[in-house]
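Ticket closed. Logging final result for Cobyrinate a,c-diamide synthase.
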Amino acid sequence: MTASVVHCPALFLTAPASNQGKTTITAALARYFTNQGKVVRVFKTGPDYLDPQILAQASKQPVEQLDIWMAGDDYCQDKLFQAAQVADLILVEGAMGMFDGDPSSADLAARFGIPMAIVMDVKGMAQTAAALATGLANFRDDVHVAGLIANRCGSERHAELIRDALPENLPLLATLKRDEGITLPERHLGLVQADEVKDELEIRFEAAVEWLKETKDTGLLELPKAIVFYSINKKVSVNKQTDAEQTIEQRLAGKIIAVAKDAAFSFIYDANLIALQSMGAKVVFFSPLKDQTLPEADALWLPGGYPELHAKALSDNTAMRQAIHAFYQTGKGILAECGGMLYSLNDLTDLNDDCYPMLGILEGQGAMRGKRGCQGMQTAVIPQGDIRGHAHHRSRSANTPEPVGYGRRQRHPAPGEAIYQQKGLTASYLHLFFPSNLNATAKLFLADQQD
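Final structure:
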């Protein structure tokens, strides 16, 4: 009989703002304890495709998202419980600032009783860093802060000033010197994909381990205290935000779903693949960049990614374009998200203003637009049912058909991203989180079998 309670050390890495070094330090910790023979399971809060790739390589374990709004309390609880059964340490990396968002990182940590460590870039301040950390630690009674990690600390004297200014119940867990050699590389939408710089990341991970060992404050290099994780004791996926309880049925039993996956299309939640498989689907992958034919499949998923960086190669692969166009004509299900939607349009103009023909299964033109973009949590409101997700793009589309629906923004009354449906195709800028509504997701991939 499976236990309903399990104990496991856990730590939640948070910060007063973005760009404080959370991902670098989380990756460094994951590799440090992995090198000691520990099983480290890492989770990333909120919608993020790139950080989990980095963290998975650092920990040598799968990394999934935890988000109460997208998936619900019970989903997050079950993921943590499953991880705690096999892990020696659970690390959770927060998003944005500690209290930013609804729900915030602090909300998630409080809900599951995970102690938080505040990562702060202390360059240019000393006692003020202690004051900020103390304020964050005492802002809410339901959040336990284990201590402060002073990143980019200039000297031992700098560290001493911060350490002496902290209250006794808020220790300085680590003082990490400035070292550009361990900083993770970036791209226009965030971090580069791990597969592109795998060898470089290995060098940086190991350098980061030595970087951690240099701290005079060793609290971060010790396993935190074990906390209790509970089973939900039922085979359901629940989103309490929408009161939607859904039994995991084999809606996709015997179906093959072909997923585009290469340098152009890689924004794929592991949770989405697991969701498809939990409904009985077989998942196979193909490359729109390199393959000439589609695998045998009952449905296609064209996820987001960087098609604008590979527009010429995608356009030049006429055999694949013809294969997908022929698949579209069958009326079978195709889900095209963000970059996948751009690929579905008539043409795409890249960052160099070069225009290339694309699939042409959805009328319209796509174009990149530099640094300005759109992002935020939204619910796809479509005939199949509401599916939660998010938008994050720096492109625009024009001359597209009449939408079948729009995204409903989490905290704003204005309509969100347009959603298009024709034949079996569903296309939008939205990145969907399948576990938020398994039945509606199944309907998207069974488009040709709907009444």
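Confidence is low (pLDDT under 50) at residues 187-191, 234-244. No further action required.
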